[in-house]
């Protein structure tokens, strides 16, 4: 791993991630977990169209998985156990504040490198699921691809 964690300057502000190694791979990946793409859909925004995320002026920590969007807890647990492709156990948390991205990149974050980007929108019949169930680590570490997984509002809160 490089000696210091990855920090990337984005349109909204600086994001702090972490380097993660995958067993059997020499090259680690840089991951940024829970990066907001919209304002939290709470209060007056609960049933309104998503609004762009607010920018920030400090380095913001994005090293832990965000909560999954509100959904049937049993269905979410079953889906997570069936489809999660990682060894680590991620506690399932649910919240209406859930409009986040997880971003997986090769560890070399130089600005002049142009890589393909794969955006993964989870399934679940618009009722269950979340980004923490789909890990882009292997693609980023082995195939030099930026993987972005996105969460969206589900059930009665969905598709606004």
UniProtKB/TrEMBL annotation:
Residues in Carboxylesterase type B domain copies: 5-159
UniProt-listed SUPFAM superfamilies: alpha/beta-Hydrolases
InterPro entries reported in the protein's UniProt record: AB_hydrolase_fold, CarbesteraseB, Carboxylesterase_B_CS, Type-B_Carboxylest/Lipase
Family: Belongs to the type-B carboxylesterase/lipase family.
Cross-referenced PANTHER family: CARBOXYLESTERASE
Name of the protein this chain belongs to: Carboxylesterase type B domain-containing protein
Origin species: Myodes glareolus
Lineage: Eukaryota, Metazoa, Chordata, Craniata, Vertebrata
């Amino acid at each position: 791993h490089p000696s210091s964690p990855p920090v990337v300057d984005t349109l909204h502000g600086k994001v702090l991630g972490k380097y993660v190694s995958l067993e059997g791979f020499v090259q680690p990946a840089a991951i940024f977990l829970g990066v907001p793409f919209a304002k939290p859909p709470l209060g007056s925004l609960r049933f309104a169209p998503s609004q762009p995320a607010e920018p920030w002026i400090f380095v913001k920590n994005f090293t832990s998985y965000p909560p999954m969007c509100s959904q049937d807890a049993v269905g979410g647990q079953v889906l997570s156990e069936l489809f999660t492709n990682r060894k680590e156990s991620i506690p399932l948390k649910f919240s209406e504040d859930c409009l986040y991205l997880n971003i997986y990149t090769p560890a070399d974050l130089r600005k002049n490198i142009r890589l393909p980007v794969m955006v993964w929108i989870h399934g679940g019949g618009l009722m269950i699921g979340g980004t923490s169930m789909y890990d882009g680590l292997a693609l980023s570490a082995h195939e030099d691809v930026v993987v972005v997984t996105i969460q969206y509002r589900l059930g009665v809160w969905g598709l606004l």
